[in-house]
């Protein structure tokens, strides 16, 4: 407990410092704890510290952990992995948020499958800000059409945009990609959409993301430690 509590406090302090350095209020940035590959017990421990928002990348892992942790009050699941259309139902039934919608078909299925008994599903559009061909996410120039179509769907609440920048140690490239996402959100707001979320920044680059306007940072390694993948799981970087 002491270890994960210390790591959690460390991340929150880092976030607050980055917010202050950017002239932003620390309350404007939220921590999403990414538990992929870590056991439900680790999430239970961090929930015991006071963390409430947890991110998962794989539908199977989300489903299993949600069942194992159903007794925890106030826990909100955020789905942050690539989502195939045949897997939307579990996510629509379990998650409070989906960060990775990048086509209308997925949004339509989530809207149709979101149970009436639950509040609307919060959704973000994943944008490919790096231009890498292999990357998930809508192209920046196609984001406006998708956003307006999604904003019209029932049972969903479009909250904002999400990105995973290219893996690079080059801070200036990273900063430019975060700035691209922030500028795109402003453009959509000028077009009349009401958005409050920029989901960007991970363990290595959350400070830079907060400087560029992140409102949710998605942090795994800095909380739980390094990940090891077993052969049953997708390898490599999702997205
Ligand atoms: C794994 C993952 C994270 C967390 O990454 P860390 O570098 O471990 O903090 C954040 N976002 C997405 C989409 C991820 O897949």
Automatic annotation (TrEMBL):
All residue ranges annotated as the Alanine racemase N-terminal domain in the record: 28-227
Similarity comment: Belongs to the pyridoxal phosphate-binding protein YggS/PROSC family.
Gene Ontology molecular function: any one: pyridoxal phosphate binding
Function noted in UniProt: Pyridoxal 5'-phosphate (PLP)-binding protein, which is involved in PLP homeostasis.
Membrane-crossing residue ranges in chain numbering: none
Modified residues (N6-(pyridoxal phosphate)lysine): 36
UniProt organism field: Chitiniphilus eburneus
Entry superkingdom: Bacteria
Named cofactor requirement(s): pyridoxal 5'-phosphate
CDD domains xrefs: PLPDE_III_Yggs_like (cd06824)
Record keywords, A-Z: Pyridoxal phosphate
HAMAP family tied to this protein: PLP_homeostasis
Keyword Membrane part of the UniProt annotation: no
SUPFAM superfamilies xref list: PLP-binding barrel
NCBIfam families named in the record: YggS family pyridoxal phosphate-dependent enzyme
Name of the protein in question: Pyridoxal phosphate homeostasis protein
UniProt keyword annotation of Cell membrane present: no
